[in-house]
Amino acid sequence: MSSTRIVSAFAAGIVLPSAILVGVSSPAMADDAAPAATPAVEPAAAPAPGPAAPAPHVPSVRELTIARYGIYPLPVTERHIKRYHLRKKILRQIAAAHKLSNTAEGRKIRRLESGTNYKYNDGHYFGAWNFDRGTWLSNGGGRFARTADKAPRWAQDYIAWKTHKSRGWSPWSTA
């Protein structure tokens, strides 16, 4: 290796293997000059590597979902969130409604009212919770469908939760 390359390497802070530096006496030595009898120049020791920088945090699906919607797991699909313009507060209420609908009392009412058929329609009562049109609309069901039997399951459970929250189990004679 020529001396000009060695000087450039030292100036740039590049550590060269000692095998390359054996017999080099001066950085200004010409390419064709014979090596001098001076000892080899050892490169400066590289600083000891410190602890490796931690890898950047990649958020999990759970963390991303909570950041975006305020709840995990989602009680509804993202398609429904967009379609019905559901906000964080309503998503939390839908999750609470899901818990209520899966209690022993909730399952019993659905079973006795409609046989747990969310598409139930006898002309006057609709859905798994047997909503009449007035109860369905007065509790906000109209934002999901005109009648309960046309609404998604989670929407029926949500309106039942709202009804239960304001009136208890009294709207259902089977309670």
Could you walk me through the main structural features you see in this protein, from its secondary elements to its overall organization?
This protein is mainly alpha-helical and 175 residues long. The protein has two domains: 1-48, no CATH class; 77-167, Lysozyme. The protein contains eight helices and no strands. It has helices spanning 3-11, 18-21, 61-69, 78-83, 88-101, 104-114, 133-138, 153-167. Helix 5 (88-101) crosses helix 8. The N and C termini lie far apart (93 Å).
Rounded to an integer, what's the Rg over CA atoms?
37 Å
Q: What's the overall geometry?
A: rod-shaped
CATH architecture of the largest domain: Orthogonal Bundle
Number of helices: 8
Helical content, roughly?
A: 40-55%
Q: How many individual domains?
A: 2
Largest sheet: none
Residue-averaged pLDDT? 83
CATH topology of the largest domain: Lysozyme
The proportion of strand residues reads under 5%
Order of helices and strands, N to C?
Answer: HHHHHHHH
In terms of per-residue confidence, which ranges show pLDDT below 50 for 5 or more consecutive residues?
Answer: 6-11
Give the distance, in angstroms, between the N- and C-terminal Cα atoms.
Answer: 93 Å
Number of strand elements: 0
CATH secondary-structure class of the largest domain: Mainly Alpha
Helix-strand category: mainly alpha
Summarize the SSE layout with pairings.
Elements: H1 3-11, H2 18-21, H3 61-69, H4 78-83, H5 88-101, H6 104-114, H7 133-138, H8 153-167
Helix pairs in contact: 5-8
